[in-house]
Write a structure and sequence with these properties.
- The protein contains 8 helices and 10 strands.
- By secondary structure, it is an alpha/beta fold.
């Protein structure tokens, strides 16, 4: 009787594990946006006319889409971009869909165009100059560069800032953003006054500002940062930055803290993640707040620096794609084993 009970319990627990697996497939597009009808002053709104096109199609302006894919690392050559959906563009679209967790079709379906039109970080997804190494879903820059000191200093430019958010509020945003990363790794961050000597230099610029990565206007590239030990973190001054959507009525407002937290990840050595809930995913919709590190972010940064001895897992770190390796993610297995042991003793 007890042996029969054992088999019944084992069967139902296995059934639960099959029906409710620990790892859940990610949604096919970021949950916070659908940008097909986004305001027409965003940088890439013209790409909406390419929805449902595929190899062999030819449309005026498709060469601009190729420039987009080149800019973010999906095309290797900048020579002779035409308006034809050729094999090179198809390869770029396939790579883009695979990298960003979209349905892989090789066509410019609505999910892909929606993703392309989103405001995003200016750092390349698959760097055309430096190979990016993928580990699971998070990624590192070539050579896995990192800082070697335990305390990093940061400072704000005295001449390249915005004036509609107070300096103290901007300080608070970055203090919180740095603190999130510091809670996971044995690295501290300290604000200093000397911008020139600081390890991390934070400034707001617009257009071409001399670093080879020109900003491109509203709701295009939001910000960019450089891998260790460069330390430059630049935000697009033309964006409408916000720290509280309740007090910002703009429908193109961008959450400063979300972008700051993302760019600090680059400063520390993380490239873009393919997990769309992760901080290191490249895009962020307007009026969207996304500040919590996910397990994918944590695992990536701890691969570079080790774990903060006081680090604690919190439920806010969970995401669909990370649930397969969350602490306690194999609970069904352990409960099954424990019940089998108990029943074994009874038998």
């Amino acid at each position: 009787m007890f042996r029969g009970l054992c088999y019944i319990i084992f069967f139902f627990l296995c059934l639960i594990q099959h029906v409710f697996p620990a790892r859940i497939l990610p949604p096919i597009s970021p949950p916070e946006i659908n940008v097909t009808n986004l305001l027409e002053n965003n940088t890439w709104h013209d790409f909406s006319k390419f929805i449902d096109t595929g190899k062999g199609a030819k449309f005026p302006g498709m060469s601009e889409l190729k420039k987009y894919f080149y800019r973010f690392g999906y095309m290797e050559s900048f020579d002779n971009f035409t308006d034809e959906f050729d094999e090179t563009l198809e390869t770029a679209v396939l790579s883009y869909q695979q990298k960003l967790g979209l349905p892989v079709s090789g066509k410019l379906d609505s999910n892909t165009i929606n993703q392309i039109m989103l405001p995003r970080c200016g750092v390349s997804d698959t760097d055309k100059d430096h190979k990016i190494h993928m580990h699971k879903h998070y990624a590192f820059f070539n050579g896995e560069p990192r800082w070697h000191q335990k305390t990093l200093t940061y400072a704000f430019s005295t001449s390249h800032m915005i004036d509609y958010i107070s300096y103290s509020q901007i300080q608070g945003v970055f203090q919180r953003s740095f603190a999130r990363w510091a809670s996971t790794i044995p690295v501290n961050f300290t604000e200093v006054d000397d911008y020139r000597k600081a390890d991390i230099k934070i400034a707001f610029y617009q257009g071409d500002h001399g670093d080879g990565e020109a900003f491109d206007g509203v709701l295009g590239v939001l910000a960019h940062a450089f891998s260790p030990e460069n330390g430059r973190l630049h935000l697009d001054k033309t964006e409408t930055w916000a720290i509280d959507f309740k007090t910002s009525g703009s429908n193109v407002a961008i959450d400063l803290e979300s972008v700051a937290t993302h760019e600090i990840g680059h400063i520390l050595g993380l490239a873009h993640s393919s997990v769309n809930e992760a901080i290191m995913y490249p895009s962020l919709g307007p009026r969207t707040r996304k500040v919590d590190l996910k397990i994918d972010d944590v695992k990536g940064i701890q691969m570079l620096y080790g774990s903060n001895p006081n680090f604690k897992y919190t439920p806010s770190m969970e995401s669909d794609i990370s649930s397969g390796y969350r602490p306690g993610g194999r609970w069904v297995k352990w409960v099954t084993m424990l019940l089998l042991v108990i029943v074994g003793f009874l038998v």
